[in-house]
Amino acid sequence: MATTYITSFIRIKNNQVLVNGDLYFETEMQLNFADFIRALYKHTAINYPKFYKMDDLSKLAILGASILLDQLEDSYEAHEKSILLSNKSASLDTDYKHQEAVNAGIASPAIFVYTLPNICIGEIAIKYKIMGENAFFVSEQFQPNQLFIATEILQQESKSLCSICGWVEYFQNDYELFLYTVEQKPQLDVNALKKMPIFTSLLEKEGALIHHPKNIELLYK
Amino acid sequence: MEDLKYKLKEQLIEALNLEGMKPEEIDNTAPLFGEGLGLDSIDALELIVLLEKHYNIRIEDPKDGRKIFHSIDTMAEYIQSKQLSA
User: Is the CB of B16 inside 8 Å of chain A's CB atoms?
Assistant: First the structure.
């Protein structure tokens, strides 16, 4: 049975972006989501005009994944990479916008195409040419165990050697993203984690961040 | 006609979320799809909606779309011809 590791992670919340525990980006003042995500897009210098056409959930997911995947030594085949995401509100925010457009008389195709939460997985897959397994789970709260099991099935059956997992939630200006990568080799630069007391004993014991629900929970908190 | 083209460009930028683009930057003769603005199939549907919403023009035969949406010039000509025949 292959040992799997959490090899990088990212959190986006409250106008702040942390990558592997280090501050990557934050705004001086509290911005609404639209202004914040535009500022983050410009900061990342990712030239991807399609970004502006996406719904808010996909904007959050594509930037989170882009920043995360930049940390990765990507030597995988397209079919070896998988994406397993989850959230609470599915695509409800866009569903409302679609309903409003319908009520106003003419539905917008550009809004309608985002009325499924897993479209954000598709956006990541298109940009990064990921052709492996994918799934989107909807649950009231982030469930590390559920994602852990789903990821391990793919990893242990060798259906995936690199999994992008986590939580990407957006509803009416409230947002939260937590993504992490799972691989079969410990790539994570642990120096950043060593600054965080919560990980000190864990890293001393395991030498790397083992893929385990408790560790996922620790990173999420 | 020039006013219509300018207005059309403004509407196109808004409808297709062409962030940061100004009407002046869109060439009247440049292809909207492919090498031009790089629009896709969803954008094509949005353009159909745009014509219906702002000009009350419904494209009956989708095959006509390719010709109508070739450029700002062809769109403006189509709108004007429909308005004159109304």
Answer: yes
Per-residue pLDDT band at B60 (split at 50, 70, 90) = confident
Q: What radius of gyration do chain B's Cα atoms show?
A: 12
Cβ within 8 Å of residue B34, ≥6 positions away: none
| Phi and psi at residue A197, to the nearest 5° | -50, -35
Instruction: State which fold the B2-18+29-85 domain adopts.
Output: 1.10.1200
CA-to-CA distance for A92 and A97, rounded, in angstroms? 9
ipTM reported for the complex, 2 dp: 0.76
β strands within chain A, DSSP E: 5-13, 16-19, 22-26, 81-87, 134-138, 162-171, 174-183
Spacing of C-alpha A146 from chain mean position: 16
What is the distance in angstroms between the Cα of B74 and the nearest Cα belonging to chain A?
A: 22
pTM: 0.88
* Cβ–Cβ under 8 Å, residues A181 and A62: no
* CB-closest option in B19, B42, B53 to A52: B19
User: Domains of chain A, with CATH numbers?
Assistant: 5-220 (3.40.47.10)
